[in-house]
Write a sequence for this structure.
């Protein structure tokens, strides 16, 4: 019986914040609302609106990349290489 060669998981880097909206939401949760003349605004939303350059610099400084893996068949994303590799492939037992 011949063994079929398993396809390897596809490694890629994923950004923590995929959009300005994601970063603004994170700032909103971290710093809460800001009161301006009796009106409340999300801190991240407000920073993006009044100073987009400072917002962009803060987002860039906060950006982190995580190593992720995709199943080589269905492209489902995993943070574990083995889970990605065997998502759609079965591990064959070694014959002694």
């Amino acid at each position: 019986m011949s063994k079929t060669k398993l396809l390897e998981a596809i490694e890629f880097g994923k950004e923590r914040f995929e959009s300005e909206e994601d970063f603004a939401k994170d700032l909103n949760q971290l710093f809460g609302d800001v009161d301006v003349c009796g009106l409340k605004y999300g801190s991240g939303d407000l920073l993006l609106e009044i100073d987009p350059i400072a917002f962009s610099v803060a987002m860039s400084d906060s950006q982190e990349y995580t190593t992720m893996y995709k199943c080589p068949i269905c492209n489902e994303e995993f943070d574990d290489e083995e889970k990605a590799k065997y998502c759609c492939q079965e591990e064959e037992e070694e014959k002694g």
Summary: The chain has one domain: 10-85. The first strand starts at residue 10 and ends at 15. The mean pLDDT is 88.
